[in-house]
Amino acid sequence: MKLVPRPEPGVLEVLLVSVGAVLLAFLASLALLWLYGAPPWEAAAAIAAGVFADPRGFAEVLRRAVPLVLVGAGLALAFRAQFWNIGAEGQLLMGAVAAAGVALFSGLPGPWMLFAMGLSAFLAGGLWAIFAALLKARLGVNDVITTLMQNYVAIYLVDWLIHGPWKGKSAFGFAYTDRFPEAAGLPLLPGTALAWPGVVLALSFAALFAWLLFATKLGFEVRVLGENPEAARYAGVRALFTLSWVALLSGGAAGLAGFVEVAGTHHKLLAPLQISLGYGYTGIIVAWLGRNHPLAAALTGLLVGFVFAAGDVAKVALATPFQLVQVVNGLILFFLIAAEVFLRYRVVLGVRRG
Amino acid sequence: MVESWVVATLARGLAFAVPLLFAALGELVAERAGVINLGVEGMMILGALSAFVVADASGSPWLGVLAAAFVGAAAAFFHAFFSVTLRANQYVSGLALTMVGLGLSGLWGKAYAGRPLAHPLPKWDVPLLKEIPWLGPGIFSGQSALLYLGFVFAFLLWVFLYRTRGGIHLRSVGENPAAADALGINVYLVRYLAVLFGGAMAGVAGAYLSVAYRPSWTEGMTAGMGWIALAIVIFAAWDPLRAVGAAFLFGAFYHLAYRFQAHLAPEFLKMTPYLFTILFLVLSALGKGVRLGAPEALGRPFVRGER
Predict the structure, then answer these.
(1) Would you give the DSSP letter of residue A291?
(2) B37, B84, B107, B186: best mutation site toward chain A, by most A Cβ within 10 Å?
(3) What is the ipTM of this complex?
């Protein structure tokens, strides 16, 4: 097999190949479900009934999509600048910690409370990410490793807080904080568990990042830096400055996702695995599937949100474990990077000549 | 008093270090060939499950270890195919492998959860050496045979990397694949073999957890050790003998986290491997002229005829 580089693919080709990859991943997942004892038609019917025929089911898709879009749109920006932020999970958790701190200890009234929680969550996530960006820009430290290691620092920090200083008085034997005051809760769409301001936030940030990337000088610098760091240096792109902004924004968006999770769903700080169902890592799929376009991430976030919601439905209807979601997500990613080959290269099968 | 402390820290730290060492040695070889694999955690957990399943069914823990090595290598094959043949982004491919591994093991492991293993891997006492004061009871008695195998592997790998032609080939593929190719080395083949070896070792690391350390299967029992293995590779500057020291150091942190939990929140000690890795990266970047030792072509796909 030989791979021959080919010209840049068109939008339609990209779309077709991406959709094909997702469909193949879904088919593979249905086959997997079959091995698990649920025939594909039954599984598909149960999922369709639970997700699309039920308005509450669709609200669940949106609820899952909100953190994914926030994280994914930010990562799209980061990956464009070749800032390999694998640390959105940690940034999300730091956002949740900051939001919880404000909720539990500030005593702010009414809307000020939510505003302060959101702002501090954004800053906490952003600063957590800037640390890695500074190390990369100033010292050339590998950002993948730094952000990955920071995830675990954040996880254990949350663990420490909920077992130690922030452990709730009313939590008895359990490890979580006290419940947030009323003012610290995001309003829900009536009849659902969906905190609608999260949807607004996610869409606004996806639009904001797209605008930044394609209509501002910063966005231009981000793209030059990502496509050709050498040329960027000659063109006068300030790597430190640009990377810091990218980190602040992508980490900040992940932090906001943490805020939405604790203020919209949990109303307390709890175990890291319960705050985030791996949204930080899954956001990488969202960004990759959207070919690092923040607006496309809004769509792909919805798709991955569907995978999460469908996993919940399957758990109840077919008694499958929740891990199925992880498998499907991983498969989407695998099929996607395999499909990319067909966009970047012409695949020539046969005997190698010359 | 002091003696019991030293002995306990040595013994327990080493017991914790075994899976870290195996996974790190495997990843080290893959990275030396220029392929970073963020799928260690996924390959480890698949190894843990398959080792338990096979050991449980066959009654032979060693057969379980073998199965884990095989399954780990099979999982790694996907990463090799995507990153070497298809030239996909190595970070993304590795992360996908971790997700699939964690998910699949959770899916198929349900039936085995909470069941004790009837025949776990035996513990070994090394004759004569176990009589050495302090070190004897700390290192040479009551440890799993895999610990000693890990020592042997580390030494053999060191010899291989620095004292044999094959080792030079492997390293040159990671440093400068174009030059290696010009010398007639099959870059793709070397990278495939290195990644498969890494997978097999990660599988054995997982097997240690499920058939030796705590002979049972629990979902997510690797608990982030795969990521620590990646940290150890950096910490050890891609040197197999230093990996032994780094694995023990991080293993000792795990032990001390339990030992001191009455006095110091265990969460902080569990954080230390990650903090140390970041600190180490920063310090070595600050030190002028200090070469960290990362293979030059790490993370970059090789395209024949291109530079």
Answers:
(1) T
(2) B107
(3) 0.88
